[in-house]
Design goal:
five-stranded antiparallel sheet, 18 helices, globular
């Protein structure tokens, strides 16, 4: 897949991470580890092996950096930062200033900034950098030819261990004529150079929500369609409702419960015909963004030749990320429902321990957070209320509203909350809705990973004023809950005696 437009920044990206000016090395001997896929999981696996003194190779059929660098985290967050800056200017009256005229969005300049930043960050994933750190880089389609061999571009790479890290790709629903009419996905939307006047977004998950809000703030008329009854179904209904209310205030038109039946061309426009309970309606736009989930990339890998079991859901692994072939492991989107860059990173580290050192580390022991980068953000780690109930886990709930946090009030960012679910002081799950929830959830992850009590939040000195003080207040609330009537009576007697 080519990346557009062909400017200096995309050219630098391609030169650093692509195969156009690269000559594959000659494969000799046996590798300690071969990683298939040049995204986060593959890069960590290969670099980690080489860093430990082993022989490592990585195979990428297209461009290093994976979805995160090319079509995901990096370009999307550059757009979200620009969209937030534009939106902040619209809030001037709240902070006591007025603009002489509305801000003029220069969409081509916004996209150029994104491409420039993406090209700058590509240095971390550059083929030359990998080679300088002892990794053999091969471009081409990888295919297993046996339980310990992979072929790429006519060469056979023999390995002691391999990691399948080929990631995922957009899932496109079977909508009549959609292919003929044309549509965008996360792999193509960042190649736009002109702002669509009307954007139809198909899917109310994280990708659809983040980009719908960004393009609305840039000035597009945005319609978001989801066949369910709400946004962000994995999140708590209360958290999702806060984001939904924000979308409605910003003018995003939401269509819940509707199914897209067919697409049509209408001159220079596109349309989607929707159906719900026998009722039909038509939406007209200038671009259609499909954000309806992901599917694993397993085509052409020759998994049968390696004795690796797989299904439509991806490569099958056990809790140690080992496939049905004991020499082959998998990490990232290709084998997991944790489809986040940080999860791929964590899984690759787990693979390294288990594959190279006979480790027994388990995926189920990791506490992997998630964050949807809407405004406000929703971050979560551990169990939700529903998940804890299904597992019959009893817990106490501690909650602080952002409207009770001084810094949030001063920032004008009061909508949101922090909820922590704990059992005898140990966290079983947490949800934060705030402007910077993704930054805040790390403290909870630290407690869970190190089996620390909520009292640690109270003991930790936080800067004042900061929004993360919401978590300190939760620690204080936990300590107050431990101050039983008996402890209160004893304390009262002690202090009376000390007068």
């Amino acid at each position: 897949m080519d990346i557009e437009p062909p400017d200096e920044f995309n050219q630098l990206l391609i030169e650093r991470t692509g195969r156009s000016q690269w000559t594959n090395p000659v494969a000799e001997g046996r590798y300690n580890l071969v990683a298939i896929g040049g995204g986060t999981a593959g890069l960590i696996s290969a670099l980690g092996t080489a860093g430990l003194g082993g022989r490592a190779a990585i195979i990428e059929r297209h461009r290093l950096g994976g979805d995160c660098l090319n079509y995901g985290c990096v370009p999307s967050k550059a757009l979200l930062a620009a969209a937030r800056a534009v939106h902040q200017l619209s809030l001037g009256q709240r902070f006591g200033f007025r603009l002489a005229e509305p801000p003029q969005v220069d969409f081509p300049a916004i996209m150029e900034r994104m491409r420039r930043l993406r090209a700058e960050l590509s240095r971390h994933d550059a083929a030359e950098r990998l080679r300088s750190r002892g990794v053999d880089v091969f471009f081409g389609q990888a295919a297993f030819t046996g339980p310990d061999a992979i072929e790429v571009e006519g060469q056979t790479l023999r390995f002691r261990r391999a990691v399948i890290a080929t990631g995922s790709q957009p899932a496109v629903p079977p909508i009549e004529n959609l292919g003929e009419v044309g549509y965008l996905t996360n792999q193509t939307i960042f190649s736009l150079t002109e702002l669509p006047r009307r954007l139809i977004v198909l899917g109310g998950g994280p990708v659809g929500c983040e980009l719908a809000q960004a393009f609305r703030r840039f000035g597009s008329e945005v319609h978001l369609i989801d066949h369910g009854g709400s946004l962000l179904k994995k999140e708590s209904p209360e958290a999702a409702r806060i984001v939904q209310s924000q979308f409605e205030r910003e003018g995003i038109v939401l269509h819940f419960g509707w199914q897209a039946q067919c697409a049509e061309k209408m001159g220079g426009s596109k349309s989607l015909v929707l159906e719900r309970n026998g009722e039909k309606k038509k939406l007209i736009g200038d671009a259609i963004l499909v954000a309806a989930g992901r599917k694993p990339q397993i085509d052409g890998l020759g998994l049968d030749a390696a004795g690796v079991n797989y299904s439509q859901r991806g490569v099958e692994v056990n809790d140690r990320l080992q496939t049905s072939n004991p020499a082959v492991f998998a990490a990232g989107d290709v084998c997991s429902h944790y489809r986040f860059t940080h999860a791929a990173d964590a899984m690759a580290r787990l693979c390294l321990q288990n594959a190279l050192f006979f480790g027994r580390k388990k995926l189920s022991a990791l506490h992997i957070p998630r964050c949807t980068y809407t405004d406000p953000e929703i971050a979560h780690v551990g169990l939700t209320d529903a998940e804890a109930a299904r597992q019959e886990i009893e817990f106490e709930t501690y909650r602080v509203e952002l409207s009770e946090v001084d810094r949030a009030v001063l920032d004008g960012e009061e909508q949101g909350f922090a909820i922590v679910r704990a059992r005898r002081g140990r966290v079983v799950g947490a949800t934060i809705v705030a402007q910077h929830a993704g930054e805040m959830i790390g403290e909870i992850g630290l407690l869970m990973s190190n089996r620390l009590s909520l009292s640690a939040l109270a003991r930790t000195i936080h800067c004042y004023p900061t929004q993360v003080e919401a978590l300190k207040r939760i620690g204080d609330e936990y300590l107050r809950s431990r101050f039983t009537p008996l402890a209160a009576r004893l304390t009262e007697k002690w202090l009376a005696w000390r007068r």
